[in-house]
Amino acid sequence: MNLTRHFTLDEFVASRAAVRHNIDNTPSIQIVHNLTLLAETLERVRALAGKPLTITSGYRCPALNQLVGGAPTSAHTLGLAADITCTGMPPKVLAQMIRDSDIVFDQLIYEGTWVHVGLSVDAPRRDVLTAHFDDGRTTYTEGIA
């Protein structure tokens, strides 16, 4: 099912972890609506980058989110967040481009090998963060480091 011109529902729900652990990651109608809003935002990111995007993590049902160590309040569980990469573009450059654009987002996180783009049902905070991974812990600093 196409959500937008370049993004399908399957891209947002695909998960090797869900398959390995027999977790049903099928979204509700409300989640599909949210994923459509997210896909529309990612269309703008794709146009900005001028290249295709790959969704490495999209919607995660609560069981899948817990399995992969996601925050209990993760926007991924609402269908409002995706982790993305862009062919031929370093993630840091992609994050900087999104930050400097007029694309509306709630949270933008540069995570080293990917970029997290999150939306919100409330007014977007436009938080820009860098994730730091150390001994299984993740911490965040403001801005793109």
Topology overview:
Layout: H1 9-13, H2 16-20, H3 29-49, E1 53-57, H4 62-67, E2 81-86, H5 91-99, E3 107-110, E4 115-118, E5 127-134, E6 137-142
Parallel strand pairs: 3-5
Antiparallel strand pairs: 1-2, 2-4, 3-4, 5-6
Strand order of the largest sheet: 1-2-4-3-5-6
Q: Any idea what the CATH architecture is? A: 2-Layer Sandwich
Fraction of residues in H or I helices:
25-40%
What is the total tally of β strands? 6
CATH topology: Muramoyl-pentapeptide Carboxypeptidase, domain 2
SS-based class: alpha+beta
Query: How many separate helices?
Result: 5
Q: Summarize the helix and strand pattern as letters.
A: HHHEHEHEEEE
- Contiguous low-pLDDT stretches (5 residues minimum) are none
* Fraction of residues in β-strands: 15-25%
Average pLDDT works out at 97
End-to-end Cα distance = 37 Å
CA-atom Rg in angstroms: 14 Å
Q: What's the number of domains?
A: 1
